[in-house]
Amino acid sequence: MLYADSVVMVSLCAQEAVFGDPAMLDTAHLLFGPVRLIALIAWVFLCMYCAQRVEFSPLISPAYKPIATALSLVIGPFLFFILAVADLAARLQDGDTSATGALASLFGGIFVTKKMLGARIVRDEDFIELLDAGGKDFFSDPQQKERQALADQETLNLTRRLVLNGIKQRASDILIDPKSSGIFTVRYRIDGFLYVVDEVSADKCRAVVNSIKAISGMDISERRRSLDGSFMARIKAGDVYFRVASAGVLGGEKLSLRILNQATGMLKLDEIGLSDESVQLVREAVNQPQGMIVVCGPTGSGKTTTLYAMMNEIDFYTRNVVTVEDPIEYVLPHASQIEVNPKANITFANSLRSILRQDPDVISVGEIRDDETAGMAIQAAHTGHLVLATLHSSSNLATIARLIDLGVKPLMLGSALNVVISQRLVRRLCENCKEPATLDAETAAALDKYGFSSSLIMQPGACKKCNQTGYLGRVAIVDVMHLDDEIKALLISRTLTLGDLKRDGDTRGRSNLRREGLKKVAAGATTIEEVKRVTSNLG
After folding, report:
1. pLDDT in tens, 205-218
2. What is the CA radius of gyration of the chain?
């Protein structure tokens, strides 16, 4: 008690010494009086406002912005005054604006609303910059009058919007073509299907076509002859490359843009849709020092993706990898990549001829198109190289027939060819809205006959995530055929018939595309209708 009384007495004495008699204490002498409180709030507001202005000020280097922001929170108004004077002087010296306009733009953004902040966030997410194939801003040179004429702001905004929306919606192609004399349609190919996304007046769309052709290095004055070019777009996620092709059609000029989005990255071998057994089989073939692996399928079936997935299994530090592609879709940092250019006489056959003199271990051929390329690829596989190639054919059996038709002798083919992979792409069911399927008795009985349970089969729904389609993305159904010693002996002796191979392929451990598709259906990844759609030409 004595100690507590002493503390109270000392506290009262201290108050009286500092403020006088507590009973006579005036509110004007309070540390946080009304006037001082208002001044403090105003100071804090000005400091925060100045910190925001510093963040977006072009007068401060990005390296020093953290320090300037911290200082503005303490001495904000003084720093703001210095920046305001410097900004005003720079604007007046460059003649960009009058003194009134500079002050208006300087103080016009004091009150930042939620709507303005939201708009800033949207602009940041919608950032896109169109560049030429070399990565330079085509419209940055103000001395080029022709480029300035093409760089109409409204046209550029429309072009950027069409390109950016195509990237966001995972489109593989953007098609711009005339529908009538006054209307152009813009279509996106998403998951293999075309969707009309916009209709643009002919005048506006011709300007868009000209701007894309100019960026792609194409002749804008030529509207009848077919042209091709390329450009790139820089977005927040990275760089996206485009192949452009034009053609004169009835009603105007058609433009096709193929999107090569490297930001998505290369898939691994176990991510493209192969079963565990097939993954192991292909990996063993890729690790062989020599031989040939052929990936076949129609256009748009994912052959190049599978080709890159196989190359992703290769140790580039211990093996010399050289590729011939048309075009180069993914950059492999530790491989030598050659792009086909017929105008410069750089063809698949000529490139293969030069590659064989560069001591390669692995050769990747983007596509076997003619007998010369087929012959050189087989020869390379015979001389101690691993050859990976793609071929346009409908099935594994058709691939063997196609190579023989291109002039490859069965003896050479039987000793060089190790694995043939045929594939198709089917749309994957949206995981957000797919639901159990209702099957008729006939379909359920057919599935049970093939050994597939109908309990896990799903059907598409509709939600915002998949744009009411029920499908989101695609998955490959892959048929892998390994040419074992028995098949090679029959092929070399020319006693192997394609009919026999097709009839007892399953009994020899080689499946087919329809069976692989039904496995995806039974796993709930896709639908029976999708499998029928992509395998209907197999007979």
Report:
1. 999 999 999 999 99
2. 34
